[in-house]
User: Fold these one by one.
Assistant:
Number 1:
Amino acid sequence: MKFSEFKLSPGVFESVEAMGFEEPSPVQEQVIPIALEKKDLIACAQTGTGKTAAYLLPLMNHLEENKSDKIKGLILAPTRELVLQIDQQFQGFAYFSGLESVAIYGGNDSAIWEQQRVAIERGTNVLVASPGRLLAHINLGYVDLSDLEYLILDEADKMLDMGFVDDINKIISFLPKNKPRQTMLFSATMPSKIRVLSNTLLKNPTEISIEVSKPAEGVLQAAYLTYDGQKNKLISHLLAEKELDSVIIFSSTKIKVKELVKELQQAKFPAKAIHSDLVQAEREEVMRDFRNKKFPILVATDILSRGIDVDNIGLVINYDVPQDPPDYVHRVGRTARAKTTGVALTFINEADQARFANIEKLIEAEIFKIPNPAEIGDGPAYDPQAPSKKRHFKKQGNRKGNFQHKKKAGPYKGNRKPRTSNK
Ligand code: ADP
Ligand code: MG
């Protein structure tokens, strides 16, 4: 599915394109159409699945259709970091529509308090706020919420865990009583206290729940930190060690797949490649021979990672970190099918570290980094947060004066694929 299939206003749609989002994530696919109809909803999906855009885009769409300088939207989130992240994403999406948001979060800095006060009084379209701090501003009397039409509770489970329920209810008591309001609740988990909150807050909500995708239990996952120049040596080392059964080596690009299979063949490893340059009949032949154990090593692009069922693959090697975190789950899922055990090893170069950290976030597990064998030598240190490795959107200019913050590279790199397929 494409973002163009939603009925988004031109300003919002353009900003989605500018952000480099190509396809909606599953939660976006389900939430956006319902949210665009101004219906209440509750959505449960794990971290990194793109929940922010799922509510921001419809919200901004509504706001763009009915422009006003009153505060019409309120997004509540538990922590300062989240508030800033959401506000940042709002600004990214607001580039073409000119909509504005103000971030309200706690802290001891009186200059920030003053900035927040001034920004609220100057007026804005949306407040992105942590409950405690917003309530403190509300209590001083200058927050006008009388036109509020859209309320979003993000990370609702966390807000309840942090004891914000009274603050939230208090804030809601300041919202207009006789005005229709759309309320949306987002959460990574669905404990019963979320249901209670949802019952009191939402009117006939649609419930959306996205299945957790995680590799099967039996997969032993680990990773090596390598420079690109070390990868081929490490592959040879790993393959030479093993009694070769069935091994799949994944790489993101067909160029790499072709190079690697050539090297392996030169080193006398029985390997073949499968990628999109082969015609269907050739692919089928390679797959058939691999399945029938005529050769043990298959080098493949992601065309193979989804769905194809090959029994008893003992080892999956990710020659690079997949572009798309769910692809990791698919690749690794090739091993340990039907309750057998398997091993999945991923090579992480410096540039892939941030992406790998996103995968760890998606599967909610930290993957063990195996020290390189002595003959390969040390690889780069693991520091996925290092600024040079972060990929963030470059915005031109900063329309928010003092409200400057860095975008955090988040986990769902989902469909931010290269424009032309190189698989
Ligand atoms: P969640 O709130 O579910 O934890 P976020 O909304 O923070 O997830 O999204 C995680 C990351 O994925 C962010 O960096 C966001 O920019 C990115 N992202 C979200 N939706 C898409 C998409 N459709 N295509 C590409 N990247 C996306
Ligand atoms: Mg979120």
Number 2:
Amino acid sequence: MQTVIAPPEGEWLEKAAAYIRAGEAVAFHTETVYGLGANAFDDAAVRKIFSLKGRPADNPLIAHVHPGYDISRLIDADPPYARALREAFLPGPLTMVYPSSGKVSAYVSGGLLTLAVRVPSSPAAQAFLRAADLPVAAPSANLSKHVSPVTARHVYDDFAGKIPLILDGGACSGGIESTVLDCTGPVPQILRAGLVTREMIAEVAGACGVYRMREGEKPKSPGMAYKHYSPRCATQFFAACGEAKRAYDAEKARGGSPCILCEHAAAETLAGYDLLDLGGTPAEMAQRLYVLLREGEKRATLLIGIEPKERGGVMDGVLNRLHRAFGVET
Ligand code: AMP
Ligand code: MG
């Protein structure tokens, strides 16, 4: 199969919608990362997403809809705080988990009785979803466990020859996956941190919990139980620059090509080293993280990460992805 990278306009939107209605998978731009979408009502199409990615069947997908789509038929309960959160943050990088009405394919929810719904703000995503005019079930458009894609080229690198179409909306401005928020209880609870932060949610909803998986418990957000976002090269992670320099020098002495991924303040103290500079602000770090992880795996034999200093807000999401990419237990 030939994989075409095309702009999200005109005939390409019609083609994308036709592919979706025919049970094919289409990759599309969003403001967070690229998604790999299929008709959420179509069992076989949803299963195709899992097999294309090599994704475990119990890791659920997110139902993506355009802002005009009536989600009331997809969900079974809608607490008042959820309405307030939708008004404050949608369309945008917030995925909300509701009790499912069971209307979409059961494969979307990966065996759970809940459904995750997202309304992206990216004009490219909205144009695609309007053309399809049905819920599009999608995870990130990367092979399972690999780094999430934030350009059409990243998607192509993982799926060339396997999907017919990638709708290219440019680089993703957000850079990390959406915040996933459980809206099935009396108080909303963050299942996955992202650009809509705990602080922002608490301000609108009055309170916001953060889910932490307990030992031996079935995870509420199964994706969080899997190794994720991994670059395909050796990695090491350090709290401070001194240890990172020693690891770098040792790799050089072995004849390897090491590379250090760190925030801008650390990069300034590492002149002469091969660096991937994440930037200085949390938003910059989110935007660059996956770009630089993919860059690092191409050019380094050993990718060395250094812990950024800033905490709270968007850093919750950045640190979660960074730690998981480097296999750091938290
Ligand atoms: P991805 O964006 O590729 O990481 O895939 C979607 C993620 O959304 C999954 O890994 C889960 O963490 C989360 N998710 C999707 N549906 C649900 C759900 N019903 N309950 C909890 N989390 C969900
Ligand atoms: Mg993913």
